[in-house]
Specification:
2 domains, Transferase(Phosphotransferase), domain 1, alpha+beta, Phosphorylase Kinase, domain 1, 3-stranded antiparallel β-sheet, globular, 5-stranded antiparallel β-sheet, 292 residues
Length: 292
């Protein structure tokens, strides 16, 4: 299989570039299409951090089986060529979809609600069904992949932290700017509420159709660390993707509830954010993380 993959790790098959590697679309000898991430082993000065990311991804994904988390099929670790082989998801990344007019319009409100619920379900699984718990540390639109049915799959586990009670939970942070929790600016002590904050940013992005940085800034009072929710800043025209038609009842009410929940996840005080269990309850997800 290694020879077959090496032949297909060519620029014409490239479908994405990340900090630790390049992702290619490849076909196995049995005819199955997969994603192959080839690590940047030639990068001077970053070999240690890249191999750490490689190991973290394998550790996190080798035991995970969940319908909203990308599946790792296998890996190859070698001094010259190291690969990770995943299931191929035809829909592509959420960030690219939201940046495309045609694809964003096709992603209607029902599909967006399902994406928000699917990501919450996956985070619940990592926090509550994995032992020890797994903190993803980089929940962002570029790390959400969709299949042809627009079902969300969390990917890129290279920054994950496994919460081991017998070891430190401090990390050298490498998440995506604009998504990581504000407390990580002054402490590297990671916990579940870090993923909850990132989930809040992602959820608003799904509703708005673009990164909500400006909206988040406008909703925080300079004199308070809490998010101020008012009817004014939650008018439909302010929080919904203008490329879609306004949703009608009952979808409209559900979208507004989701936006309010997302804002609660953005509280600057970690303990004031809801847990992902509370998020799933608010989203009316029955038996979260049970679908594997």
């Amino acid at each position: 299989m290694k020879t077959s993959l090496k032949q297909q790790v060519d620029s014409k098959y490239c479908i994405g570039v990340g900090g630790c590697g390049i992702v290619y679309k490849a076909e196995l000898p049995i005819g199955q299409v997969v994603d192959v991430k080839k690590l940047h082993l030639e990068t001077d000065g970053r070999m240690s951090s890249i191999m750490k990311s490689f190991t973290a991804e394998i550790r996190a994904l080798r035991e995970i089986r969940h319908c909203n988390i990308v599946e790792l099929f296998g890996f190859c670790s070698h001094l010259l060529h190291s690969f990770l082989v995943y299931e191929y998801l035809e829909g592509g990344s959420l960030d690219k979809i939201l940046k495309s007019m045609d694809k964003a319009i096709a992603l209607d409100w029902d599909r967006r609600i399902n994406i928000v619920k699917g990501v919450a379900n996956a985070i619940y699984y990592m926090h509550h069904n994995c032992s020890p718990p797994i903190i993803h540390c980089d929940i962002s639109s570029k790390n959400i992949l969709l299949n042809l049915d627009c079902e969300a799959h969390i990917s890129n586990f290279g920054t994950t932290k496994i919460l081991n009670p017998d070891s430190s939970n401090w990390i050298s942070f490498a998440g995506t700017v604009g998504y990581f929790a504000p407390e990580l600016a002054y402490t590297m002590d990671v916990n579940e509420k870090c993923d909850v904050y990132s989930y809040g940013v992602l959820t608003l992005e799904v509703v708005l159709g673009h990164h909500p940085g400006d909206l988040i800034s406008s909703l925080f009072s300079p004199s308070s660390s809490s998010v101020r929710l008012t009817s004014k800043n939650l008018l439909l025209r302010n929080v919904l993707d203008q490329r879609l038609s306004l949703p009608t009842y009952p979808i409209a009410e559900e979208i507004i509830s989701i936006a309010k929940l997302a804002l609660a996840c953005l509280n600057e005080t970690p303990r004031s954010r809801p847990s992902i269990e509370q998020v799933c309850k608010e989203l009316s997800i029955p038996n979260p993380a049970s679908s594997v």
